[in-house]
Amino acid sequence: MNNDTLKRLLRAVASGQTSVASAADSLQHVFVEDIEYAHVDHHRTLRKGFPEVIFGQGKTAEQIAGIMEKMNAQDDRVLVTRLSEQKAAHIQALFPQSVYHADARVLLLEKTPPPICGRGPVLVMSAGTSDIPVAKEASLTARAMGNEVETVYDVGVAGIHRLFSHKESIERASVLVVAAGMEGALPSVVAGLVNRPVIAVPTSVGYGTSLGGMTALFAMLNACSSNVAVVNIDNGFGAGYMAAMINRP
Amino acid sequence: MNNDTLKRLLRAVASGQTSVASAADSLQHVFVEDIEYAHVDHHRTLRKGFPEVIFGQGKTAEQIAGIMEKMNAQDDRVLVTRLSEQKAAHIQALFPQSVYHADARVLLLEKTPPPICGRGPVLVMSAGTSDIPVAKEASLTARAMGNEVETVYDVGVAGIHRLFSHKESIERASVLVVAAGMEGALPSVVAGLVNRPVIAVPTSVGYGTSLGGMTALFAMLNACSSNVAVVNIDNGFGAGYMAAMINRP
Amino acid sequence: MNNDTLKRLLRAVASGQTSVASAADSLQHVFVEDIEYAHVDHHRTLRKGFPEVIFGQGKTAEQIAGIMEKMNAQDDRVLVTRLSEQKAAHIQALFPQSVYHADARVLLLEKTPPPICGRGPVLVMSAGTSDIPVAKEASLTARAMGNEVETVYDVGVAGIHRLFSHKESIERASVLVVAAGMEGALPSVVAGLVNRPVIAVPTSVGYGTSLGGMTALFAMLNACSSNVAVVNIDNGFGAGYMAAMINRP
Amino acid sequence: MNNDTLKRLLRAVASGQTSVASAADSLQHVFVEDIEYAHVDHHRTLRKGFPEVIFGQGKTAEQIAGIMEKMNAQDDRVLVTRLSEQKAAHIQALFPQSVYHADARVLLLEKTPPPICGRGPVLVMSAGTSDIPVAKEASLTARAMGNEVETVYDVGVAGIHRLFSHKESIERASVLVVAAGMEGALPSVVAGLVNRPVIAVPTSVGYGTSLGGMTALFAMLNACSSNVAVVNIDNGFGAGYMAAMINRP
Amino acid sequence: MNNDTLKRLLRAVASGQTSVASAADSLQHVFVEDIEYAHVDHHRTLRKGFPEVIFGQGKTAEQIAGIMEKMNAQDDRVLVTRLSEQKAAHIQALFPQSVYHADARVLLLEKTPPPICGRGPVLVMSAGTSDIPVAKEASLTARAMGNEVETVYDVGVAGIHRLFSHKESIERASVLVVAAGMEGALPSVVAGLVNRPVIAVPTSVGYGTSLGGMTALFAMLNACSSNVAVVNIDNGFGAGYMAAMINRP
Amino acid sequence: MNNDTLKRLLRAVASGQTSVASAADSLQHVFVEDIEYAHVDHHRTLRKGFPEVIFGQGKTAEQIAGIMEKMNAQDDRVLVTRLSEQKAAHIQALFPQSVYHADARVLLLEKTPPPICGRGPVLVMSAGTSDIPVAKEASLTARAMGNEVETVYDVGVAGIHRLFSHKESIERASVLVVAAGMEGALPSVVAGLVNRPVIAVPTSVGYGTSLGGMTALFAMLNACSSNVAVVNIDNGFGAGYMAAMINRP
Amino acid sequence: MNNDTLKRLLRAVASGQTSVASAADSLQHVFVEDIEYAHVDHHRTLRKGFPEVIFGQGKTAEQIAGIMEKMNAQDDRVLVTRLSEQKAAHIQALFPQSVYHADARVLLLEKTPPPICGRGPVLVMSAGTSDIPVAKEASLTARAMGNEVETVYDVGVAGIHRLFSHKESIERASVLVVAAGMEGALPSVVAGLVNRPVIAVPTSVGYGTSLGGMTALFAMLNACSSNVAVVNIDNGFGAGYMAAMINRP
Amino acid sequence: MNNDTLKRLLRAVASGQTSVASAADSLQHVFVEDIEYAHVDHHRTLRKGFPEVIFGQGKTAEQIAGIMEKMNAQDDRVLVTRLSEQKAAHIQALFPQSVYHADARVLLLEKTPPPICGRGPVLVMSAGTSDIPVAKEASLTARAMGNEVETVYDVGVAGIHRLFSHKESIERASVLVVAAGMEGALPSVVAGLVNRPVIAVPTSVGYGTSLGGMTALFAMLNACSSNVAVVNIDNGFGAGYMAAMINRP
């Protein structure tokens, strides 16, 4: 249910075509469906402009499919993140039109791709090759929420001339998402080059004192550039979502 | 130096009024001044739309005053953060027109207040009374960067009806800054109510397992709402800066 | 052996029907049985009102079965927690009347279900779908100890209206158990709505800075509501046990 | 305002003596007063049976006094915790009838002591002499909430016969609060002796690997007795509050 | 080579039967053999009274066998710790007279059992059933170094009467080794009962805030009894070795 | 009260000179005195062979003096550790015969020095000059418990020839206490030279990654020599006590 | 491309044989090749004197092979580190002349071995047998960069005479690399013996409080010898690279 | 005593001018002087080419002066680090020719400045103004050990053009020392520009998640450039010493 459907219903109530009781019932049903193991929150589409996203980790394939079925009945697209290949296989058997991106562990069930509506391009960058899966989760999310997305990969600070060769894309971007593991320095450098908001995503790439991404996270929170805010380790989805939220027209 | 001054200079070069060599000299000087203990980066005003901010902690009052002098010569306003009362007294003696906010530890030297130019109001909230200094640092920063700022204090999640009585302000805001210590739950709840970006600021308020703000930080990074990004502990300045960046028209 | 059996024995001693020596022998045996790798503590049923529970993790299936045999001879019910499916299969072959709950990893060997005896209903809530196994361990434990248990799942703080739709259950409860991972904010919000004790259970659900449940744990220990106490990460059993202890008539 | 006052008002509304509008106004005022730096939550007395407690740390003496004034107008008692001697002096000058307990850093402003109404005595124990301030904060809180409180101090596990000499008090208690620093072992031992709920309070007493109370906290969360739940480090107030909540008749 | 062999050789040098050069050669060889991946330190038997022990973890089966071959040629017994079942199978094929204790992951190659020579019995205790493997590593080590060893298992502090039923063994012991996971409280209680040295061994038994044994370790280092010293987590071998060292006549 | 006094009393009971009731009374009094803020444990002298030691930190000067008074009435010596200079001044005014060692923060109240009774000399070593206070706390304790003590200071591993020049003392020692901060390597090296037990004491000397002594602690727990056990950071008292316990004849 | 090739090209430009535009094109191509998932940085050979090394972990075998193909076309040797056996098999099928060192997880593709050009021998030491793989990664790297490398393994500080028997090698070395796990004490001792730079490599060898190498790392950063600098845990490659950099003539 | 003095003495022994016994005596004295609280290691000048440096923290002013007196008798210069202003005043009264650098907390007692003898200039950089004290400790040390030192301050990565304006100094340097706090990214960027060894010094500048320098430390250990090695937090002395060691001709 989107805003249009809602308004139609309310106008019917206003005009007396639909009784209050029946409208309430149908809205109640429409908003939150309680299916034993989950409260599917259709209200979110109204409140947020994008349906609830299913966090695949820690849910069984059966639970995910059950939630998808309810959402699919009312929403234009369903996004499942952190979905293992094994569960994806189970789900694609039930929803053959869904597309699974194995490296980003994202599944997208989409009737039609959304029109581009952001204020400008979202640029998604990764410091290394190993950070690409996280960057991809971000770009798939931002694209699914109606944004033009550009990507630049493997431009870590140890060879800073590689970064500068993409200056044009950097300056054109409306919002930037920068994924980096190890010392997590890239967002600080990039943010120093632009006057746009930068969403930094620490990744768990590295070993030893990278501490599973904690070092990159802490480094990013200490970025000497001030136009940086940070999301959880490996949370490409959150970065893409936040970028889309900022980029709303 | 702002964009207008720069363009005037460049037009003079274009028209032959000013030689390239002399323009380069004056620009070089204008951009980065090296004063032994600091590189004052005037270029930032052009690049970022806001002059470099002086981080007061760890600098001597003399160093801060030295940098302010250089900036004051070229910029409309100078913001000094994390400035102790003792250093502030030293500086206010030199810059009598500056205003010091003791609770937020912020000093502002401003010729004229900037016109409001953001896309909508920035709402700054605090979970408790003790989080107000951090919230204030955020609101002073956002205001100094040309934003209309609203504030709501002491609306923590333990008495959630207090929060709901401010629903109107929450829904009107273009960007939200939410400061909270202890369990850091407020940003998650607030973000669940809106479809706008929320900048979460963990504060060091609490004791024991609040771990100096780390618990609030980690909780915010795990917010189940996706429209949340986080800045460093007690970094009210960064939150206000990021909000202003997002709120640019 | 329960209080009745004990009193019968003591009356026999008092009346001279049983000699002190023989009573001591039988009590000694009854209280603590030393079976090489374990001291089975039958005394606990007298002392605590509920037999010792077997913590399955780190014990071999043979050791667990050996302890169950001793307990089964004297107690009305035996609860085994943290029992892997593999060990459960081994044990169910020996105790076919036992019931295994795979998601909660709990095995219950029970002659008759205990009568309801608590002061009121125990409400067990989970913030997300992935927290259900921990919540279930709590509800199975509380039920096995003679309590009426209600459950409400997937009502995290990001969509707080989902929580409010269960206000009635919340207000009716005598004790509440609230399981949450990630930012662990739910207990704080729930505790703010009631004047009953809330037992918070952090779960290891999440990734990155959820730190395997440490973030939820620390957040709960910092709950701004004061009617909250906390148990170990993923310790559904402990939460259910503590709730039952509080709920004694 | 307590339940009686509320009911009187509502009856007046029911009988037409008071108009709905005027009742709403007065209730609105009664429930939450917004005094710039704080939302004083009178509603809590109704919701929780005990007025909001003022957490003194991080608030100025002026802010605390301001909140006290509002609460004092409507509540029977006001409790301020974590109050430094310096702020206490400021406040006692304004509220001469208030009593300050310097070791527990608690100030109590109380018209009449509350009648005893708990189900049985609350026993507050400390492992060492240095843990007494935290234990005292717990016992003052529980007493202020209408409970009979017994105390036993300095009975750490290294001389376990000291503990056993208090077995009678231990067995008589309805709820137990056990404060311990260093290795935090006392709650586990005490809980093993009773079938009543034990609230464990880790204290920051110790040095080196006591890690400011984290070791005691973690040890308590790992107590092998199951009738234990834990509150934050040095949170004597929370322990006393939770004990009172559990002990309600 | 033991002290006797050494003395014989030196007497031969003294009497002129053996030349200095040839003695030096043979001693050089005897003391440290360099076999590419290891310096086998025969000198240790002289220096320490017990041959070097092979730490199996992180070495290949081939490397372990190579070192054993060198040691076996000169020493009465070889102890291999932290040896996986798979590597043990490989080694037992080469040294069929060796004995492998799978639960303690210890392999012992021993020509004759050493005579008992300690000052009194070493008592090895475990708090739970799951701590037995670590306790066993300690008792095997102490026995192999010539000590009488007694064991008492599963006497954790939650049921303290189980502990007291072994008071006789506790008081008879010359040195005590106490293994415990979770809250690690047992060493503190036991040490309070005796005036003998207690070696505490934290184990990694537990979950959540047991932090893989760190909580037990820190608790033990904070034991309020002073006759306690601690070894590394799960280091049963070290505890047994240290106990033997203390127990030397 | 020591063993002799106790036996005299018991013989009087046996011979009928003293009634059981009066003996019990006097023993009860003798064993544990409850003085509001402390249970003075005279029983410990019997149980441990050394009276309870007063841990000065966290107790007021008044509390310490109160406990000393009780102990002084029955014991030959009283040791107070972690005593600040300020509190020491207060106490020395009341007990003028007491001796305060400011660097080790130890106060000793001793009628006569105890005779030497250990199995051999205890050697106390420090890695650096800054570790001397901790080493001194250890040597004062061991001496007060009847041991001959030798000391060697400032022999850290960076100039290992300094260590070897004390080889004779090292080899003569019956037990060794080794205090070290920073990288904490000295115990490992020293233990490799002897076949005697080594008690390692990490100190908080260092900065940055010395983490207040945690690094030295962890390094010592990982000592590749097996004849090492460890006490808490800066716990010179515990090391000296443990050494004395091991060195009993 | 190396310096010679570059100079030839530039001379061709200088002499007019090659146009500026065509040279720029070919240089552009030569410097950084963008192959979707990676920016291959040929420029590094010029800038650093050694081609970019491929960090194998987190890249697919296909990605590694793709980067190798590009590098192989221009560089004399390609080094791949942290390469699993499985990926190595895939790569060796494509580059049959490459050599894979399974224990060090290093693959080397080298047309001709580089001539020795360092200032003196690089000595690589390991404290234990289990540290050899890391030491080997260091020595393979240093050798591939044109250095004479000596190795000494298993000379930990617990048997310090083993170390001294290699004094000659130690004193001859121009730079030293010292790998150690557990307590990480070896670099401190070795650095105390020489006046050459020592690169310390902590390894993850150990268990319990070795904390996956963090303890060794922190100990090394606290080395009381000042001629020590440290690289990441298990970073044998970095140590060898840094040693080569220092050893340049 | 330096190498020349030593050789003169040895030649006198060789020629019979000095007896072996008397030479040994004088050497023994010369090498290590034991002054109760310290072993002054004169041998180090021979072994290391630079006298032992006095770490001022944790030593009393009297102890420092005592050690200086011994060193001053034999060495050309004495360096004291981490010396508080208060202790410095005490020492300068005794050694009026010494120079104290208050910001770097370094005192230098030097007869004549050492001649420049390194392979090239050492470049010391700082990321911010607040990092200057640490950078200064490094440059004073390197200069005192005979190196030409250049400094560049306040060139953090957020304004990367400031860094590039010093490219010439960067490329000329033989060794680089880079001090940075907060996110610690500067060494990685600088190391990417040169093929010289970079010594990275994390500083404790920052707040919140800078964790007292741990974040910068971990980031530097994860530098994606390989020509970086790291010293302890705020260890400017160690960085300067290591740079001098590397720069030896």
Explain what the structure shows.
The structure is a homooctamer. Chain A has about 250 residues and is an alpha/beta fold. Chain A folds into three domains: about 1-30; about 30-110, no CATH class; about 120-245, 3-Layer(aba) Sandwich (Rossmann fold), CATH 3.40.50.1970. The first copy, chain A, is about 40% helix and about 20% strand. The first copy, chain A, has eleven helices and eleven strands. Chain A has helices at about 5-15, 20-30, 45-50, 60-70, 85-95, 130-145, 160-165, 165-170, 185-190, 215-220, 235-245, and strands at about 30-35, 40, 55, 75-80, 100, 105-110, 120-125, 150, 175-180, 200, 230. A five-stranded parallel beta sheet of chain A has the order 8-7-9-10-11. A four-stranded mixed beta sheet of chain A has the order 3-4-6-5, with helices on both faces. In chain A, about 60% of the residues are buried. The mean pLDDT of chain A is about 90. The interface of E and G includes residues 41, 43, 57 and 59 of E.
